[in-house]
Amino acid sequence: IELADLVLTMGYEVMPFRSAEESVAAHVPADVPLTVTTTEARGIGATVDLAVRLRGRGYDVAPHLAARQFTGEDEVAAVVGRLRAAGIGRVFVIGGDAPRAAGPFPDALSLLEALDRVGHPFSDVGIGGYPEGHGSIGPELMERALQDKAAHATRVVTQICFKAETVVDWAAELTARGVGLPVYAGMPGPVNRQKLVRISAGIGLGQSARFLRKQRGLWRFLLPKTYDPTRLVRRLAAASRTSTGTIGGLHIFTFNELEGTEKWRRGLRARLGID
């Protein structure tokens, strides 16, 4: 995939905090695809509410559906009904971080199967991928789970990874195993480095997050204040040109730093001559 194609496929992930809707409306063009995370503290309701409101403003938005937060199939059907009524055609299905499942869905696969049973209308179903492995799930189990989930999905979105070659090699491994889904590379947008270290160390589950934790002091004192993902994007484009894997695009974790992220995206487009 070429660098310009990566820039054109860029989508933003936002968190369902109080000012998120106004920040999106103020800074993000309606042609940028969005996803809305689910947090354990705020629950599925806050995610669906924000997704519906953003769809009403004209955005193409996919809510995260965290399996472990659903109480049962009736709730699944109710959420699907709300999303259908709002005209939302994309979702991103994850297991979720809740220590205990609220209902009969302990993982993403069980929720994907429930979505099929209730007759979901979604044309685009994303699932999570872990190029650097998962902190609490072994590689063989992760591989088998991804194979099972892929039958219900249309794309794979990776956890944050700061190594382009790792993402591209992992995508090639998926292809070799017969998983033909496009891989969208997860990476942070321009964000304060201290915030990036703090959040990535909490949600990242691979070598990148462990590196950040160990280098917390180094990053704070020796490097510029704001992380710039441009080099990572360029490396991803370069590495993908000779790969057998399918890199579908970029999934930008904005941490709700939307003004800076959009300024960065527009700068990339201008440098590449994209109107």
Strand content: 15-25%
β-strand number = 10
Secondary-structure-based class equals alpha/beta
Q: Could you describe the largest sheet, including whether it forms a barrel?
A: 8 strands, parallel, barrel
Low-confidence stretches: 214-222
Order of helices and strands: HEHEHEHEHEHEHEEHHHEHEH
Provide the spatial order of strands within the biggest beta sheet.
1-2-3-4-5-6-7-10
Q: What is the average of the pLDDT values?
A: 89
Distance between the termini: 19 Å
| Overall form | globular
Share of helix among residues?
A: 40-55%
Indicate the radius of gyration in whole angstroms.
18 Å
Q: Count of helical segments? A: 12
Question: Strands, helices and their partners?
Answer:
Blueprint: H1 3-8, E1 11-14, H2 20-27, E2 34-36, H3 43-56, E3 61-66, H4 73-86, E4 90-94, H5 108-117, E5 124-129, H6 139-150, E6 155-158, H7 164-176, E7 183-188, E8 191-192, H8 193-203, H9 207-214, H10 216-222, E9 226-227, H11 230-240, E10 247-253, H12 258-272
Parallel strand pairs: 1-2, 1-10, 2-3, 3-4, 4-5, 5-6, 6-7, 7-10
Antiparallel strand pairs: 8-9
Helix pairs in contact: 3-4, 7-11, 8-9
Write structural notes for this entry.
The chain has 275 residues and is of the alpha/beta class. It is 47% helix and 16% strand. The protein is built from 12 helices and 10 strands. The chain has helices spanning 3-8, 20-27, 43-56, 73-86, 108-117, 139-150, 164-176, 193-203, 207-214, 216-222, 230-240, 258-272, and strands at residues 11-14, 34-36, 61-66, 90-94, 124-129, 155-158, 183-188, 191-192, 226-227, 247-253. The strands form 2 sheets. It has an 8-stranded parallel β-barrel with strand order 1-2-3-4-5-6-7-10, surrounded by 5 helices. Strand 6 (155-158), helix 7 (164-176) and strand 7 form a beta-alpha-beta unit. It is globular, with a radius of gyration of 18 Å. The two termini are 19 Å apart.
